[in-house]
Amino acid sequence: MKRRLSIIRYFVPFLVMFMATLLPNRLWATTVTKTLYLNRGDFVAVDTTTFPAVAFNETATYDITNARIELQVGDTLELTVINTDSLQHDFSIKGSSFAGLALPANGTANATIPFPDAGIFIYFDNTSFPKYVYLGAASMITVVDQQPDQQYFWDFHEFERDRNFAFDTMQFLQWGNYEPDYYTVNGKSYPNIDADSTAKIRGVVGDTIHIYLANTGQSVHSVHFHGYHLRILYSSKAPEEVNWQRDTAPLWPMETLLLELVPDKPGIFPVHDHNLMAVTGNRYYRNGALLFMEIQ
């Protein structure tokens, strides 16, 4: 009898681990509490040019990088949004059944939001769309059902300096004349983005690397990878392309992608927008949407 119990005690941990690999992730779902602040501030571009902008941050201090929300399939998001602005705003989630949240001026709003399915969702300020999205008030919610070796996050955006000043003073400019000056990833342009550990890919040959992409700007971006082909795991714009492999991924405004990279060789390789104007900042080349991957 004692021997039987000792055998059972020996195998129970292995049985639990085995069952955990078979059970769906939703059984481990939790409630995630998150507080966001809608802030106004001055965006500082790569050449130190400044212009007014808006962002969702994790504190009441404006930051050029919007807060990202990371969840697992089946999680419930307990969300509090604090509007530090003197104007009323809005919180919406594209691709979700969530009805939206009104943000009173200098006020607070709360919501409970379930996420039963995997995906990448853009949350944004829907007020006078796309005005405040363009001004910067948008980011991504990632809902995953598997954990890769590594994961990185790229939020593509762009700004036209004069348009920011016009919108800030309640003027309107026709979108047909849109000519952005600055292109960013996670609110930063090259070379500043090179210091962002959530964006700069560092890996080893054979790693499984997932890259979560969102386009919160108003331009179409064409994300081109040197050195590798990547597999599309999720596309909000073209789900029929899942499992396609390519080295260039079109990224449309207010759409998202999940790409899988399994490097087959070491090296340092660039990733950039195939529209080379997007690799500039105030017309200076390489001060735009450019990143480098380092694979050992």
Strand content is 35-45%
**What ranges have pLDDT less than 50 throughout 5 or more consecutive residues?**
11-27
Work out the helicity level: 10-25%
Radius of gyration, whole Å? 21 Å
State the strand order across the main sheet.
Answer: 11-10-13-18-15-16
End-to-end Cα distance: 53 Å
Biggest sheet overview: 6 strands, mixed
What is the total tally of β strands?
22
Q: Which class best fits the helix and strand makeup? A: mainly beta
| Count of helix runs | 3
What string gives the helices and strands in order?
Answer: HEEEEEEEEHEEHEEEEEEEEEEEE
Averaged pLDDT: 92
- Outline: globular
Overview of this protein structure:
The strands form five sheets. Strands 11-10-13-18-15-16 form a six-stranded mixed sheet. Helix content is 11%, strand content 43%. The protein is built from three helices and 22 strands. Strand 20 and strand 21 (284-285) form a beta hairpin. The protein has 296 residues and is mainly beta. The protein is globular, with a radius of gyration of 21 Å.
SSE map:
Layout (H helix, E strand, L loop, with lengths): L1 H21 L8 E14 L5 E8 L11 E4 L3 E8 L5 E6 L6 E3 L4 E7 L4 E6 L6 H4 L3 E7 L5 E10 L1 H8 L13 E4 L16 E2 L5 E7 L5 E5 L4 E6 L9 E2 L1 E4 L4 E6 L5 E7 L6 E2 L2 E2 L4 E6 L1
Parallel strand pairs: 1-4, 3-9, 10-13, 12-22
Antiparallel strand pairs: 1-2, 4-7, 5-6, 5-8, 8-9, 10-11, 13-18, 14-17, 14-19, 15-16, 15-18, 19-22, 20-21
